[in-house]
Amino acid sequence: MTDSISSILQGGYHHPTIRAWQSERVLRKSSLMYPIFVSDVPDAEEEISTMPGQKRWGVNTLPKLLSPLVKKGLKSVIIFGVPIKTPKDATGSRADDPNGPVIQTVKLIRREYPDLFVACDVCLCEYTDHGHCGWLNQDGTIDNIASVNRLTEVAINYAKAGAHCVAPSDMMDGRIKEIKASLIREGLSNKVTLMSYSAKFANAANSAPAFGNRKCYQLPPGSRGLARRAIIRDLGEGADIIMVKPGLPYLDILRDAKELSPNVPIAVYQVSGEFAMIYRAAEAGVFDLKVAVLESANLILTYYTPQLLDWLEN
């Protein structure tokens, strides 16, 4: 293994879509990544009440969503598994179930939409009975080392299933380094992109765990210094893409991310309707959309991808 884990670069340009993200920051269809929620109910097509216009899909119904979007120019998606019937436990043991929603969706997409870049969110919160993003100590605090080990297993299994990109969103310390090292050991570092939720802030919109909260591992609101340190850390640990989530309240962090990591793609996760808010405000002349977001981000994860595919020419 190389002495410097951050010298492994090929994971950042192994696919045509991610090669586009390495170029200058211009808004185009390839700049959009659509978050998709996939249930363990194969024929599911359920409205998500808290997210207007979004649905939970099953593996059997997903082509109904994807086929028209791919025809419109959709280039990438990120998959979130949503177990409805799957038993949950303290360790999130079903997160990488070969018959679970994430791995089955990856295989479907690679088979039916071979040119579509598929990323997988890597976290345990949907699969643990306590709802936290990692393993817990007996006193209810996060066991960071055990959590990182388990998250690394999940990421590698998603990669082996065919994911082009793994994106750990758990915010555990050191997980980027461990996942990158494992990708190298498994011979996958030149085939799989590692996208880090480096600056992910805790907020009231996050789904709550069964007890406690996620404020001890997600960043406190307004903690610019911590966000800068996390970005620098994850770059050093081998991240191919740096992400800021959410975007609208943290445009200053987006600017910091661009300053601190000018040589890697910057992603911004526009939660709920915030991208549409920015877009319409820019249309009304409140500010320049390009200055506000697009000059800072190569990749935008947004629920408004279907609409933007219609708005954008290429």
UniProtKB/TrEMBL annotation:
Pathway: Porphyrin-containing compound metabolism; protoporphyrin-IX biosynthesis; coproporphyrinogen-III from 5-aminolevulinate: step 1/4. This is Delta-aminolevulinic acid dehydratase. SUPFAM superfamilies: Aldolase. It holds the Pfam family ALAD. Homooctamer. It catalyses: 2 5-aminolevulinate = porphobilinogen + 2 H2O + H(+). Gene3D superfamilies: Aldolase class I. GO terms for cellular component: cytosol. It comes from Ambispora gerdemannii. Belongs to the ALAD family. InterPro entries: ALAD, ALAD_AS, Aldolase_TIM. Its EC number is 4.2.1.24. The active site is at residues 200, 245. One of its GO terms (molecular function) is porphobilinogen synthase activity. Catalyzes an early step in the biosynthesis of tetrapyrroles. Binds two molecules of 5-aminolevulinate per subunit, each at a distinct site, and catalyzes their condensation to form porphobilinogen. Keywords: Heme biosynthesis, Lyase, Metal-binding, Porphyrin biosynthesis, Zinc. Zn(2+) binds at residues 123, 125, 133.
